[in-house]
Specification:
Layout lengths: L7 H41 L35 H5 L14 H20 L3 H23 L4 H14 L8 H26 L6 H14 L4 H22 L11 H25 L4
Length: 286
Protein backbone atom coordinates (compact mmCIF):
# COMPACT_ATOMS: atom_id res chain seq x y z
CA UNK A 1 0.00 0.00 0.00
CA UNK A 2 1.42 3.46 -0.89
CA UNK A 3 2.99 5.21 2.08
CA UNK A 4 1.08 8.45 1.44
CA UNK A 5 -2.19 6.74 2.37
CA UNK A 6 -1.04 7.05 5.99
CA UNK A 7 -0.61 10.82 5.82
CA UNK A 8 -3.16 12.51 8.13
CA UNK A 9 -4.32 14.97 5.47
CA UNK A 10 -4.90 12.16 2.95
CA UNK A 11 -6.72 9.95 5.45
CA UNK A 12 -8.85 12.90 6.56
CA UNK A 13 -9.76 13.87 2.99
CA UNK A 14 -10.67 10.31 2.02
CA UNK A 15 -12.71 9.77 5.18
CA UNK A 16 -14.49 13.10 4.66
CA UNK A 17 -15.32 12.22 1.06
CA UNK A 18 -16.63 8.84 2.13
CA UNK A 19 -18.66 10.52 4.86
CA UNK A 20 -20.14 12.93 2.35
CA UNK A 21 -21.65 10.10 0.30
CA UNK A 22 -22.61 8.10 3.39
CA UNK A 23 -24.42 11.21 4.61
CA UNK A 24 -26.66 10.97 1.56
CA UNK A 25 -27.43 7.35 2.44
CA UNK A 26 -28.07 8.31 6.07
CA UNK A 27 -30.78 10.68 4.86
CA UNK A 28 -32.50 7.65 3.34
CA UNK A 29 -32.12 5.68 6.57
CA UNK A 30 -33.46 8.57 8.67
CA UNK A 31 -36.51 8.96 6.44
CA UNK A 32 -37.35 5.34 5.64
CA UNK A 33 -36.40 3.22 8.64
CA UNK A 34 -39.19 4.58 10.89
CA UNK A 35 -41.71 3.99 8.10
CA UNK A 36 -40.43 0.42 7.69
CA UNK A 37 -40.82 -0.09 11.43
CA UNK A 38 -44.40 1.22 11.35
CA UNK A 39 -45.26 -1.24 8.61
CA UNK A 40 -43.79 -4.10 10.63
CA UNK A 41 -45.79 -3.08 13.70
CA UNK A 42 -48.94 -2.78 11.59
CA UNK A 43 -48.40 -6.26 10.17
CA UNK A 44 -47.72 -7.74 13.62
CA UNK A 45 -50.84 -6.10 15.06
CA UNK A 46 -52.95 -7.49 12.21
CA UNK A 47 -51.50 -10.95 12.77
CA UNK A 48 -52.33 -10.81 16.48
CA UNK A 49 -55.92 -9.86 15.60
CA UNK A 50 -56.09 -12.77 13.17
CA UNK A 51 -56.44 -10.42 10.21
CA UNK A 52 -54.69 -10.28 6.88
CA UNK A 53 -51.75 -7.84 7.03
CA UNK A 54 -52.31 -4.75 4.87
CA UNK A 55 -50.52 -4.63 1.55
CA UNK A 56 -48.19 -1.76 0.70
CA UNK A 57 -45.85 -0.97 -2.15
CA UNK A 58 -42.31 -2.28 -1.51
CA UNK A 59 -40.32 -0.12 0.90
CA UNK A 60 -36.78 -0.69 2.08
CA UNK A 61 -33.51 1.23 2.06
CA UNK A 62 -33.01 0.52 -1.65
CA UNK A 63 -36.56 0.49 -3.03
CA UNK A 64 -38.24 2.59 -4.33
CA UNK A 65 -35.96 5.16 -5.89
CA UNK A 66 -35.85 8.55 -4.19
CA UNK A 67 -38.39 11.01 -5.52
CA UNK A 68 -39.71 14.49 -4.83
CA UNK A 69 -42.39 14.23 -2.11
CA UNK A 70 -44.38 17.03 -3.78
CA UNK A 71 -44.59 15.97 -7.43
CA UNK A 72 -43.21 12.43 -7.44
CA UNK A 73 -40.33 13.33 -9.78
CA UNK A 74 -37.68 10.57 -9.68
CA UNK A 75 -34.35 11.90 -8.45
CA UNK A 76 -31.63 11.36 -11.05
CA UNK A 77 -27.98 10.65 -10.27
CA UNK A 78 -27.11 14.23 -11.22
CA UNK A 79 -29.68 15.54 -8.73
CA UNK A 80 -28.37 13.28 -5.97
CA UNK A 81 -24.76 14.43 -5.65
CA UNK A 82 -24.30 15.32 -1.98
CA UNK A 83 -24.44 19.09 -1.29
CA UNK A 84 -23.40 19.93 -4.87
CA UNK A 85 -26.79 19.09 -6.35
CA UNK A 86 -28.58 21.06 -3.62
CA UNK A 87 -26.49 24.15 -4.36
CA UNK A 88 -26.76 23.79 -8.13
CA UNK A 89 -30.56 23.39 -7.97
CA UNK A 90 -30.90 26.31 -5.58
CA UNK A 91 -32.47 24.06 -2.96
CA UNK A 92 -35.50 23.31 -5.15
CA UNK A 93 -36.89 20.40 -7.15
CA UNK A 94 -35.88 20.71 -10.78
CA UNK A 95 -39.31 19.51 -11.91
CA UNK A 96 -41.84 21.37 -9.75
CA UNK A 97 -39.74 24.00 -7.98
CA UNK A 98 -40.77 22.89 -4.48
CA UNK A 99 -38.23 23.60 -1.75
CA UNK A 100 -35.88 20.78 -0.74
CA UNK A 101 -35.44 20.51 3.01
CA UNK A 102 -32.20 21.95 4.35
CA UNK A 103 -31.92 18.88 6.53
CA UNK A 104 -30.52 16.87 3.61
CA UNK A 105 -27.37 18.90 2.92
CA UNK A 106 -26.97 19.52 6.67
CA UNK A 107 -26.78 15.78 7.39
CA UNK A 108 -24.37 15.29 4.49
CA UNK A 109 -22.12 18.12 5.65
CA UNK A 110 -22.18 17.02 9.29
CA UNK A 111 -21.31 13.44 8.32
CA UNK A 112 -18.48 14.62 6.06
CA UNK A 113 -16.99 16.92 8.71
CA UNK A 114 -17.11 14.37 11.53
CA UNK A 115 -15.78 11.61 9.26
CA UNK A 116 -12.95 13.84 8.06
CA UNK A 117 -12.02 14.75 11.61
CA UNK A 118 -12.09 11.06 12.57
CA UNK A 119 -9.58 10.41 9.78
CA UNK A 120 -7.31 13.13 11.13
CA UNK A 121 -7.75 12.05 14.76
CA UNK A 122 -7.29 8.28 14.41
CA UNK A 123 -5.29 7.87 11.23
CA UNK A 124 -5.48 4.90 8.90
CA UNK A 125 -6.39 1.67 10.65
CA UNK A 126 -8.97 -0.28 12.64
CA UNK A 127 -9.79 2.55 15.10
CA UNK A 128 -10.81 4.77 12.19
CA UNK A 129 -13.10 2.10 10.75
CA UNK A 130 -14.84 1.69 14.08
CA UNK A 131 -15.05 5.44 14.66
CA UNK A 132 -16.76 5.92 11.30
CA UNK A 133 -19.34 3.22 12.04
CA UNK A 134 -19.94 4.75 15.47
CA UNK A 135 -20.33 8.30 14.11
CA UNK A 136 -22.63 7.31 11.26
CA UNK A 137 -24.85 5.34 13.63
CA UNK A 138 -25.02 8.25 16.07
CA UNK A 139 -26.04 10.68 13.34
CA UNK A 140 -28.80 8.37 12.09
CA UNK A 141 -30.10 7.74 15.61
CA UNK A 142 -30.04 11.42 16.57
CA UNK A 143 -32.10 12.57 13.61
CA UNK A 144 -34.52 9.65 13.76
CA UNK A 145 -35.14 10.48 17.42
CA UNK A 146 -35.69 14.14 16.58
CA UNK A 147 -38.28 13.21 13.97
CA UNK A 148 -40.08 10.33 15.64
CA UNK A 149 -38.82 9.99 19.26
CA UNK A 150 -37.69 6.48 18.34
CA UNK A 151 -34.26 4.87 18.66
CA UNK A 152 -34.55 1.77 16.48
CA UNK A 153 -33.25 -1.56 17.77
CA UNK A 154 -32.11 -2.18 14.19
CA UNK A 155 -29.33 0.32 14.88
CA UNK A 156 -28.77 0.36 18.66
CA UNK A 157 -28.41 -3.40 19.16
CA UNK A 158 -25.97 -4.06 16.28
CA UNK A 159 -24.07 -0.97 17.45
CA UNK A 160 -23.73 -2.44 20.95
CA UNK A 161 -22.45 -5.81 19.72
CA UNK A 162 -20.13 -4.19 17.18
CA UNK A 163 -18.58 -2.10 19.94
CA UNK A 164 -17.87 -5.23 21.96
CA UNK A 165 -16.42 -6.89 18.85
CA UNK A 166 -14.00 -4.00 18.22
CA UNK A 167 -12.90 -4.13 21.84
CA UNK A 168 -12.10 -7.85 21.66
CA UNK A 169 -8.67 -6.56 20.60
CA UNK A 170 -8.78 -3.47 22.83
CA UNK A 171 -9.41 -1.00 20.02
CA UNK A 172 -10.85 1.68 22.31
CA UNK A 173 -10.82 0.06 25.75
CA UNK A 174 -10.30 -3.31 27.40
CA UNK A 175 -13.02 -5.88 26.78
CA UNK A 176 -13.87 -6.12 30.48
CA UNK A 177 -14.37 -2.33 30.60
CA UNK A 178 -16.51 -2.51 27.46
CA UNK A 179 -18.75 -5.22 28.93
CA UNK A 180 -19.02 -3.27 32.18
CA UNK A 181 -19.82 -0.15 30.15
CA UNK A 182 -22.64 -1.89 28.28
CA UNK A 183 -24.13 -3.22 31.52
CA UNK A 184 -23.74 0.05 33.42
CA UNK A 185 -25.02 2.16 30.54
CA UNK A 186 -28.27 0.23 30.37
CA UNK A 187 -28.80 -0.10 34.12
CA UNK A 188 -28.07 3.55 34.94
CA UNK A 189 -30.81 4.93 32.70
CA UNK A 190 -33.10 2.01 33.50
CA UNK A 191 -32.82 2.97 37.18
CA UNK A 192 -33.43 6.64 36.43
CA UNK A 193 -36.48 5.69 34.36
CA UNK A 194 -38.07 3.66 37.15
CA UNK A 195 -37.18 6.14 39.89
CA UNK A 196 -38.75 8.97 37.89
CA UNK A 197 -41.82 6.86 37.13
CA UNK A 198 -42.31 5.85 40.77
CA UNK A 199 -41.96 9.45 41.97
CA UNK A 200 -44.00 11.20 39.26
CA UNK A 201 -46.12 8.46 37.72
CA UNK A 202 -44.78 9.45 34.29
CA UNK A 203 -42.23 8.01 31.89
CA UNK A 204 -39.20 10.30 31.63
CA UNK A 205 -37.46 8.51 28.76
CA UNK A 206 -37.77 5.54 26.45
CA UNK A 207 -36.08 2.15 26.45
CA UNK A 208 -34.14 3.17 23.36
CA UNK A 209 -32.15 5.61 25.50
CA UNK A 210 -31.03 2.73 27.75
CA UNK A 211 -29.82 0.77 24.74
CA UNK A 212 -28.05 3.77 23.23
CA UNK A 213 -26.09 4.49 26.41
CA UNK A 214 -25.30 0.77 26.67
CA UNK A 215 -23.92 0.89 23.14
CA UNK A 216 -21.77 3.91 23.99
CA UNK A 217 -20.48 2.03 27.02
CA UNK A 218 -19.69 -1.00 24.85
CA UNK A 219 -17.58 1.15 22.53
CA UNK A 220 -15.85 3.46 24.99
CA UNK A 221 -15.97 1.59 28.30
CA UNK A 222 -17.58 2.41 31.61
CA UNK A 223 -15.09 5.25 32.20
CA UNK A 224 -16.75 7.28 29.44
CA UNK A 225 -20.24 7.03 30.92
CA UNK A 226 -20.01 9.79 33.58
CA UNK A 227 -18.83 12.31 30.98
CA UNK A 228 -21.48 11.16 28.48
CA UNK A 229 -24.28 11.43 31.03
CA UNK A 230 -23.12 14.82 32.35
CA UNK A 231 -22.70 16.35 28.88
CA UNK A 232 -25.98 15.01 27.51
CA UNK A 233 -27.93 16.04 30.62
CA UNK A 234 -26.44 19.53 30.71
CA UNK A 235 -26.96 20.22 27.01
CA UNK A 236 -30.42 18.65 27.08
CA UNK A 237 -31.43 20.82 30.03
CA UNK A 238 -30.15 24.00 28.36
CA UNK A 239 -31.87 23.22 25.06
CA UNK A 240 -35.09 22.15 26.79
CA UNK A 241 -35.30 25.31 28.88
CA UNK A 242 -34.51 27.42 25.82
CA UNK A 243 -37.29 25.76 23.82
CA UNK A 244 -39.77 26.27 26.64
CA UNK A 245 -38.73 29.89 27.18
CA UNK A 246 -38.10 31.14 23.64
CA UNK A 247 -40.20 28.89 21.44
CA UNK A 248 -43.06 28.38 23.89
CA UNK A 249 -42.51 24.66 23.75
CA UNK A 250 -45.14 23.08 25.98
CA UNK A 251 -43.80 21.61 29.19
CA UNK A 252 -45.86 18.49 28.65
CA UNK A 253 -44.41 17.93 25.16
CA UNK A 254 -41.59 15.36 25.35
CA UNK A 255 -38.11 16.32 24.17
CA UNK A 256 -36.01 13.48 22.70
CA UNK A 257 -32.91 12.67 24.74
CA UNK A 258 -31.21 10.54 22.08
CA UNK A 259 -29.59 13.43 20.16
CA UNK A 260 -27.86 14.64 23.34
CA UNK A 261 -26.63 11.16 24.18
CA UNK A 262 -25.37 10.75 20.62
CA UNK A 263 -23.60 14.11 20.66
CA UNK A 264 -22.03 13.37 24.03
CA UNK A 265 -20.96 9.93 22.78
CA UNK A 266 -19.16 11.41 19.78
CA UNK A 267 -17.54 14.01 22.04
CA UNK A 268 -16.33 11.24 24.37
CA UNK A 269 -15.00 9.28 21.39
CA UNK A 270 -12.75 12.15 20.33
CA UNK A 271 -11.94 14.03 23.51
CA UNK A 272 -13.23 11.95 26.43
CA UNK A 273 -9.81 11.17 27.90
CA UNK A 274 -8.61 14.77 27.53
CA UNK A 275 -11.74 16.25 29.12
CA UNK A 276 -11.65 13.78 32.00
CA UNK A 277 -7.92 14.38 32.60
CA UNK A 278 -8.47 18.14 32.59
CA UNK A 279 -11.37 17.86 35.01
CA UNK A 280 -9.61 15.57 37.45
CA UNK A 281 -6.41 17.58 37.21
CA UNK A 282 -7.96 20.98 37.79
CA UNK A 283 -11.18 20.63 39.74
CA UNK A 284 -10.70 17.74 42.12
CA UNK A 285 -8.46 17.94 45.14
CA UNK A 286 -5.26 15.98 44.86
Amino acid sequence: MPHYIYEPAVVSALAGLLGLFLGSFLNVVIHRLPKMMERDWEAQAAELRGEQPPTHPPLNLATPRSRCPHCGHLITAFENIPIVSYLFLGGRCRHCGAAIGRRYPAVELLTALLSGYAGWHFGFGLPLLGALLFIWSMIALAFIDIDTQLLPDDITLPLLWTGLAFNLVGTYTELTDAVAGAMAGYLILWSVYWLFKIVTGKEGMGYGDFKLLAAIGAWLGWEALPLTILLSSFIGAVVGLSLITLARHGRGVPIPFGPYLAGAGVTALFWGESISAYYFGNFLPS
